[in-house]
Amino acid sequence: MMDALLDIEDENGRKLSDEEIIDVLVMYLNAGHESSAHITMWATVKLQENPEFFQRAKAEQEEIIRKRPPNQKRLTLKEIREMEYLPKVIDETLRWITFSFVVFREAKADINICGHSVMMFKHSKEKNSSDEIGSFAGYTIPKGWKVLVWFRSLHFDPETYPDPKEFNPCRWDDYTAKPGTFLPFGLGSRLCPGNDLAKLEISVFLHHFLLNYQ
Question: Which residues are annotated as a binding site?
């Protein structure tokens, strides 16, 4: 990451200053810790609110302890990767809370979209503001317009997730989300670089929480 920040140039060939690089690193530090902490908090809240999910997740962690060699004292990466139910709890928490709200994009060409009702805004560079221009069911996004992908609308789409307001890790049983329907960490070139680390941190915390909480 440091190599990329030191080498990157804008369209005019200007590189980032030391102060700008420090700002970016501080932003990554805050974003990485705060988002993981919030997801962990909501996972513990939803597990406490749903005893059946709590007991199933706890039973899985107790089974890990039972299978562990006598001389092993700590959770291993192999054990985390072999977990089946806890990752579903984490994915459902990521879907249900949707900590990252939007991602910004720019239309590279005119895009015709039909059958979905949206509110559209036009940004004025002169005013540095956005004006509402109407709500449309069937519309065209002109080339060059800025687009905000609203993650919550994807994660709460009843066609993809029945009863979307219900917290239910079991919805992930034998289910793999279709591309573009589950984006807790974004997508494409701007995918959150810490997504695997975040899930690892949450898994470690919940492992000890489930085994030691009464």
Answer: 192
What is the helix (H) or strand (E) element at residue 93, kind and residue range? helix 85-97
Please, which residues have CB within 8 angstroms of residue 101's CB and are 6 or more apart in sequence?
150, 151, 152
CATH value at residue 82: 1.10.630.10
136 and 185 both lie in a single domain? no
What domain count does the chain have? 2
75-95: buried (b, 16+ CB within 10 Å) or exposed (e) per residue? beeebbeebebbbbbbbbbbb
Dihedral of CA atoms 71, 72, 78, 79 in degrees, nearest 10, equals 120
In order of 65, 86, 89, the CA distances from 79 in angstroms are 10, 12, 16
Q: Which residues are annotated as a binding site for heme?
A: 192
**Rounded CA gap, 64 and 67, in Å?**
5
Which residue range forms the structural domain that includes residue 131? Answer: 112-144
- 100 shares a domain with 61: yes
**Residuewise pLDDT in 10s, the chain (214 residues):** 888 889 988 889 999 999 999 998 888 777 777 788 999 999 999 999 999 999 999 999 999 999 999 999 899 999 999 999 999 999 999 999 988 777 888 889 988 876 554 444 455 555 444 444 444 556 788 899 888 888 888 899 999 999 999 999 999 998 888 888 998 888 777 788 788 888 999 999 999 999 998 7
Shared-domain flag, residues 47 and 63: yes
Give the three-state DSSP class for 104: strand
